[in-house]
Amino acid sequence: MRILSALGVVLCSSVAWAQYAEAPVTNGGSISGKVTYDGTPPKPATITITQDPGTCGATRVEDSWSIAADGAVENVVVYLVDIKSGKKMDFPAQPVVDQKGCHYVPHVQIIAKNSELQVKNSDPILHNIHSYLGTSTVINLAEPKQGMVIPKKITKAGGMTLKCDIHNFMRGAIFTADNPYAALTGKDGTFEIKDIPPGTYEIAVFHEVGSPKSGPITVKAGEKATYSAKIK
Ligand SMILES: [Cu+2]
After folding, report:
1. Nearest to 77 by CA among 157, 154, 175
2. CA angle 58-124-97, nearest 5°?
3. Which of 19, 44, 78, 196 has the fewest CB atoms within 10 Å distance of its CB?
4. How confident is the model at residue 11, as a pLDDT?
5. 95 CA to middle of ligand 1, Å?
6. For residues 211 and 158, what is the distance between their CA atoms, to the nearest angstrom?
7. Domains of the chain by range and CATH?
8. pLDDT at 93
9. One-character DSSP codes across 49-73
10. 62 C-alpha vs ligand 1 centroid, how far in Å?
């Protein structure tokens, strides 16, 4: 028995080694900053809607970029790539993506790896949500009825883009985090990530259509580090 339990400890710890481990953080640091558009922001196109205009509306302004007058970019995920331990995962246990008025609501969100995403259709028409992690399909669900909710466990980390196979103008994104150090920029392009154990990490940004970007960042105990990125 003793040998078996010792073996169990070895196996478990070798599995856990690769994964994020929760551990108390004392006197952690923070990272805050702002994401802005690099160059002249694109003028969003106005799309004429022919599929289900009664629910979706007759026209739509293309909504992949949300850029303020000063160039601030909303809905950018800023995250630490390589942190192995720290504060508790604190994203919702059952995150929801709703299809409402032919929009993904919320347009972009961060969920925890292995959480059970609740894919909801609030519209009285058929939607077929289709998500891509790079080029591979993760979610592909037809929901023909209003009020349907289908749970889908998301097991791979990274940024997925969302598209609807019925309505080609529907766009959005979901970022699946394997650690809690990820934040979404607000309308003013700013973000803050708190309670980070001191160290040097790789920080990266994900945007549904923008190019990814990353770089090193050093966080000191009890201090505020700054990270600002320009994306396009
Ligand atoms: Cu749709």
Report:
1. 175
2. 90
3. 19
4. 44
5. 19
6. 14
7. 27-231 (2.60.40.420)
8. 87
9. P-SSHHHH-SEEE--S--B-TTSBB
10. 15
Please answer whether residues 75 and 99 qualify as being in contact, where contact means their C-beta atoms are separated by less than 8 angstroms: no
> How many H helices and E strands in the chain?
2, 21
Joined tokens for residue 31:
């990272």
Question: How far, in Å, is the centroid of ligand 1 from the Cα of 108?
Answer: 16
8-65 confidence digits (pLDDT tens): 444 444 444 468 999 999 999 999 999 999 999 999 999 999 999 999 999 999 999 9
Pick the closest to residue 170 from 18, 55, 16, 25 (CA basis): 55
126 Cα to the center of ligand 1, angstroms: 6
Ligand 1 centre and the CA of 127: distance in Å?
4
Tokens of 159: 């940024």
Q: Encoding tokens for residue 137? A: 């399909």
